[in-house]
Amino acid sequence: MPSRTCGGKTPFATNAAVNWPNSTPLSHGPTDGRCTNRGSLSSVVSSPPLVTHSPSVRMRQNNAKTSLTQQKIQMKNNQITDCLQREFAGISSNKRHNSTLVGDSANSKNTRGSNSHAAKADGADIGSGMPLSQEDVLCALSMIIQKQNSDLDTRRSRLLKQRERDRARSAEAADSEADEQSTLLAEPCCALLHSLLSQSRRLWASVLSARLQVLKKELSHSGSTRVLDARGCSGITENRIVPDFSASSSSASSFNSDTSGVSNNSSKGQNGMEWSVEHLYEALVAGINSNATTEFIVSRMFNGDASVCDDGIDAFGLLTVFRAPVQAMLAQYQETLAPSLTALRMHFFALHPSAGCPRNTAFSNGETSEEAQERLGNFLKVGGSAPEALASALRGPVTPSLRRLLYARALQFQLFVAGDQSSPTDVGELKGSRYGDDIARHLSFATARSRECLRRRTHYKYLTKDAEAMARVLQAMIIMDNAQSVGDNDKYFIFLEETELLATSLILDRSVSDVQLKSTLMQMGRPPEQIHLLIAPVCYITGDTVEQYDIVSALFSQLWCRLQGPTPELLQCCWIFESLVARFAAPACLHATCALRFPPLRLAIRWMTTAFATLLEPAELLSLWDLILSYHVEEMFSTRTALSCSLGECSAAKGGKKSACAPSALWLLPLVAASIFVFRAPLVERCATADEMLHLFAQGRNLRCRPLLQYLLFMAK
Predict the structure, then answer these.
(1) Looking at residue 209, what DSSP letter applies?
(2) Where are the domains of the chain?
(3) Average pLDDT over every residue of 345-368
(4) 126: phi > 0 → left, psi -120 to 50 → alpha, else beta; which?
């Protein structure tokens, strides 16, 4: 297959460079962040020549405007080069200072004084505008990145030690508690929610087990070499297997009959809902509303007093899908289990309308060279990779060329200088193009482990036949899901091959669950306990296949896996969504629940489990993910997180006091879902059927998340 650049597959990309007169080496090319003229770095500090004015008055005016724009760009370039020059001057000064240690002890003082004076003089000359060679620029850039990496490691190690001390203190406090109520108040929120979800997990496990049994039967009927190509091609023989679903009605019916506690649906749920989302919703709600969970709530939360569940509760379920005991528990421990609107306003005050609403610069309208250089200069300066600086950068206008670096830092990757990468390097299926200008494109975070994982994804050996059969079933599910979710999607079908490659590698990578997920939960103070649509948007961030896999695996291990099943995070998101919708769109919620028999939560749970990849346009989706990562950085490096706090600690949030616990970044998902539903609530009230309601929310081309969030949090009545 001929080599190609992944970045060129962006439908909004263009290969025409920006025609700045006498453009500087750091000027940008296409609006998607790729640089077409990847020149040398040797003239990185040279000044642009003066613009030659034409005798024509009109040309003089145009040249004056162009010269002004070019001066602004050059000013931003100078910020970057000044940063590099200062770093290189420090390197030179250290080298000269170290050289004074060599020599006779009698002449050491004179030598030290003369050499240090020379070092200062050289440093002043370098910092005053002396052109740096390409080797000098890469050396200075490498030192800046090494300092940022060292600072990240120091912060993380210090935080992990603090987590260990907090865990030891919590264990001592739990042993010293005498009564049951004190033990309950000292229990972490995540542990309590984990106990509440025991029945939901049991139902969900039975659903997945039955699903795998059906696929195993289909594999045995379909043959060992038949592959269903996502592009409609047939007759392809590979070492992959895809089941034949054309004659699987009997198997599907047997699967549905074996699933207890979950409504019987086909591969597509009722009213157009997908199979996995529909069954996840049913398992979650049925488990929480089960008698076993009710007994747990009454005995553990209310000391056996069941009468508390009947006071002032929506027992008829007009605005919620959860039963009275769950509603009573939320009413008593609201700030801990599902934060109120007042608490959410304090947690997300950085999104207040007074902070503005930055425009999206994903890849369509694109970034200007001035903006790109300013963001890159802020990233490279001292403290530019600190959690506070990263959060601020991700909440502002994120330029496409810098987004991959901000994501890498937010996900705690180690950056390194990749040397001279003046041309894309394609090795087999792995693409090697990186977005950015002459400075940003030299920075990478692609790890050797990920590269090896991508190459070895089809060469695994299994100890037993059952393990091999399970791997083949998972591979078949990946290919089918990829063909349906990405191949039929007008926003991501161009990344069909990349998503299959990344998903196949991800599903077989044991380090994601065994290493990365446990490390994330440990850092957050937690106990260590629709895939393709979450992968495809990453292809708009970077064209490097290894970098894509690093970002995808980190996003799954740190964020998305916490929503793929009956988890404490998903349950919290459901409660937050229902409370906001019932407050701001009660008539529409009542109409959808009672008249249409389609609760709004059934619609929102699909948006949240796919992080809105099914609804929003790619540019708006990446803007939302920027916000999520900005709060994820603060959550990962905060003193206490929301789910690691106990019921007693979170009681400080009542009465308008701000809680010391950092909010969960995933709380933005129910906020966005509620804001979209409230925005279209008048239209929901006019829907006569559930199909009309689904059609109303089928597309979100004109939706903008930041204004909707600001309205719901700070302006809605």
Answers:
(1) H
(2) 9-138
(3) 74
(4) alpha
